[in-house]
Amino acid sequence: xxxxxxxxxxxxxxxxxxxxxxxxxxxxxxxxxxxxxxxxxxxxxxxxxxxxxxxxxxxxxxxxxxxxxxxxxxxxxxxxxxxxxxxxxxxxxxxxxxxxxxxxxxxxxxxxxxxxxxxxxxxxxxxxxxxxxxxxxxxxxxxxxxxxxxxxxxxxxxxxxxxxxxxxxxxxxxxxxxxxxxxxxxxxxxxxxxxxxxxxxxxxxxxxxxxxxxxxxxxxxxxxxxxxxxxxxxxxxxxxxxxxxxxxxxxxxxxxxxxxxxxxxxxxxxxxxxxxxxxxxxxxxxxxxxxxxxxxxxxxxxxxxxxxxxxxxxxxxxxxxxxxxxxxxxxxxxxxxxxxxxxxx
Length: 345
Fold this sequence. Notes:
single chain; 7 helices; 20% helix; alpha+beta; six-stranded mixed beta sheet
């Protein structure tokens, strides 16, 4: 298995990706564009972060599909390609703009059971929010989802997901929404409310809305939602995942030290009883915007949480996929650091 994360510009200049495909003709190759590539304790831009994993007893299968009107259908299509009695884990990488991540996962879990660990993330494009790609057939393409299935009793997988944001202001009720499009909070236009908090930064929407994500209460716990786009005409905001009507939400803001500590805690939660292991780190572009020059501190925290000799790779994303707890289904997160660790016994 080869995982690749890189700058969005490789869609225009894909030669290095083609060389990688030719170098590993028998490998299952997956990955996506990023808002920053993670390799070890470092974060880079417009590079390629690559990890090559050789399994001795674990089967690996690749699936891909095109995104359409309903991301649930795409998720189900991916899951049907991978479904098998001995499926243990799925790594999902999706176009980051043409998808409803919640619906995508709903489709996957309609086919595979909760005993299958589903992790991964949504592709990024820095703070531009213009285009993203995933690796499809060895080349970068937009509007698709790719996934890797891992099979058999020999493969081990663990996961961790932490935030570090502080809630502030009053709790608000979602009074009008459609799937991942939010129109009103407490009967008022949602976009107008965000602009009040952003002030002069409102001119930088949608990226500046990452400074104030939403804490969304669910039956499984609290998840964080962040914005992919805004519509001035309808005063609405499109999020990476569902924001259900009548749900309770609250604005959040950064606590720098807690963001960095959260990355370390995510690594500690993803316990691997065997070494070597591969740690896949997926963090949100919003965290990178807020942390600024301190970004590498959170990556260093995650890196230091895995044993010496293990490998850490990953990317900054438009949405992170990881279960909230052991035995739970994969959930779309925003503004979190998630770690998935893989090993073989």
